[in-house]
């Protein structure tokens, strides 16, 4: 399977990219757009802005006195997600598997590193969202959207703050950003078309993040992490709604060629998030040589489509709401069908999101 081999090679090659010790520069496309039309004419965005102002919270609202046992959290999450041996036998049975001889100690470390790696990518993704949202304030042409986006800048700063604090105070620091995630954020940020930054960040990256937060929230009983995720998810649900509301209007005015470009961008971003976020840094820390990782990942991916699909449970319905699924000749519907995620097109979560918001508001009031 040469295509798959080439792709894994390119992912591993990218993983050697360095983004600098303490900073990473990306050219940011797009012009700063002033508007002199201050009339509040978009009711949906206006309501979202009012809600965002009312539901602000503070990182200090969380109970940081809770002690966290990383091993217990990681083991318990793996157990709830599919039994204590979830994934273990599949990975161990592959020919030449580097994990075949692992005992409980190695598996325990692997689970801890994996938890840390996931939370680290959440952290870096949140910083990506912070920077993209700051750009959106400048580039979106409508005053209602500028107002709302400014509240999201504050939200994202708070999300960076809580994930960084959790990793530093309760776990063992953080992994560097996954190069593929950084490259995707770079592309989203450097595109000159304001709606691509919007769609890439608010629909695709945030849509996937919201689903990933949801699984972690479901599969952890660690009270601080659960509370942190619940607060962050309540904000994220609003962010995805912001993207959907704004782009629905804009996409109605685009022609067929322009829509196809958006469909292709959405699909490419989906594939990159599905296939390319390999935990190379975790394997490195587990002492597995890169050549072994390459062979192992190749074999693992040839036989699996097992756990990624649910991550699309937010992305597919939102692409549908934007009209991207069926526009033109239904190109994106066809592509999502091919990768086995079309079943999520009508996945509803409005009720869950409302419940989250209510729960967070109630917590906040109780704390006052
Ligand atoms: Fe966020
Ligand atoms: Fe967000």
How do the helices and strands line up, and which of them pair or pack?
Blueprint: H1 2-14, H2 43-54, H3 70-82, H4 88-93, H5 104-139, H6 143-170, H7 179-190, H8 194-218, H9 223-252, H10 256-275, H11 280-285, H12 290-302, H13 315-321, H14 331-338, H15 350-367
Helix pairs in contact: 1-12, 2-6, 2-9, 3-5, 5-6, 5-7, 5-8, 6-9, 7-8, 8-9, 8-10, 9-15, 10-14
Bound molecules: fe (ii) ion (2 copies).
Structure overview:
The protein is mainly α. It has helices spanning 2-14, 43-54, 70-82, 88-93, 104-139, 143-170, 179-190, 194-218, 223-252, 256-275, 280-285, 290-302, 315-321, 331-338, 350-367. The chain has one domain (2-14, 39-367): Ribonucleotide Reductase, subunit A (Orthogonal Bundle), CATH 1.10.620.20. The N and C termini lie far apart (60 Å). The model has no long low-confidence stretch (mean pLDDT 86). The structure holds fe (ii) ion (2 copies). One fe (ii) ion is lined by residues 129, 156, 206, 236, 239.
Structure at a glance:
The protein is mainly α and 368 residues long.
Keywords:
368 residues, mainly alpha, Ribonucleotide Reductase, subunit A, 15 helices, 0% strand, globular, binds fe (ii) ion
Number of helices: 15
Helix content: 55-70%
**Mind telling me the CATH class?**
Mainly Alpha
How big is the Rg?
Answer: 21 Å
What proportion of the residues form beta strands (DSSP E)?
Answer: under 5%
- Shape estimate: globular
Q: How many domains in all?
A: 1
* Count of DSSP strands: 0
The overall average pLDDT, rounded, is 86
**CATH-level-4 superfamily name:** Ribonucleotide Reductase, subunit A
The computed structural class is mainly alpha
Poorly predicted ranges: none
Q: Give the N-terminus to C-terminus distance in angstroms.
A: 60 Å
- CATH architecture tag: Orthogonal Bundle
Biggest sheet descriptor: none
H-E string: HHHHHHHHHHHHHHH
Small ligands present? fe (ii) ion
CATH-defined topology: Ribonucleotide Reductase, subunit A
């Amino acid at each position: 399977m040469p295509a798959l081999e080439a792709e894994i090679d390119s992912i591993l090659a990218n993983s050697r990219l360095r983004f600098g010790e303490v900073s990473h520069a990306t050219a940011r496309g797009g012009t700063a757009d002033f508007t002199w039309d201050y009339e509040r004419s978009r009711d949906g965005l206006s309501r979202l802005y009012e809600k965002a102002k009312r539901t602000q919270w503070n990182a200090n609202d969380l109970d940081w006195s809770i002690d966290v046992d990383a091993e217990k959290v990681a083991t318990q999450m793996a157990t709830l997600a599919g039994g204590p041996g979830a994934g273990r036998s599949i990975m161990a049975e592959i020919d030449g598997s580097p994990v075949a001889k692992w005992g409980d100690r190695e598996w325990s470390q692997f689970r801890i590193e994996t938890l840390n790696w996931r939370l680290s990518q959440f952290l870096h993704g949140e910083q990506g969202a912070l920077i993209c949202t700051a750009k959106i304030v400048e580039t979106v042409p409508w005053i209602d959207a500028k107002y709302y986006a400014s509240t999201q800048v504050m939200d994202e700063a708070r999300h960076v703050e809580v994930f960084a604090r959790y990793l530093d105070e309760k776990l063992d620091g953080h992994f560097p950003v996954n190069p593929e995630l950084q490259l995707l954020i770079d592309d989203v940020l450097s595109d000159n078309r304001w709606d691509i930054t919007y769609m890439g960040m608010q629909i695709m990256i945030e849509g996937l993040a919201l689903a990933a937060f949801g699984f972690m929230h479901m599969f952890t009983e660690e009270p601080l992490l659960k509370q942190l995720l619940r607060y962050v998810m309540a904000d994220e649900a609003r962010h995805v709604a912001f993207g959907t509301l704004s782009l629905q209007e804009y996409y109605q005015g685009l022609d067929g060629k322009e829509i196809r470009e958006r469909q292709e961008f959405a699909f490419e971003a989906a594939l990159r998030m599905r296939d390319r976020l390999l935990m190379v840094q975790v394997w490195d820390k587990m002492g597995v040589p890169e050549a072994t990782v390459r062979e192992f990942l190749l074999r693992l991916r040839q036989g699996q489509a097992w756990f990624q699909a649910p991550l699309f449970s937010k992305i597919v319905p939102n692409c549908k709401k934007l009209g991207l699924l069926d526009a033109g000749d239904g190109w994106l519907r066809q592509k999502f069908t091919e990768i086995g995620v079309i079943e999520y097109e009508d996945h509803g979560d409005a009720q869950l999101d409302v419940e989250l918001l209510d729960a967070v508001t109630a917590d906040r009031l109780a704390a006052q």
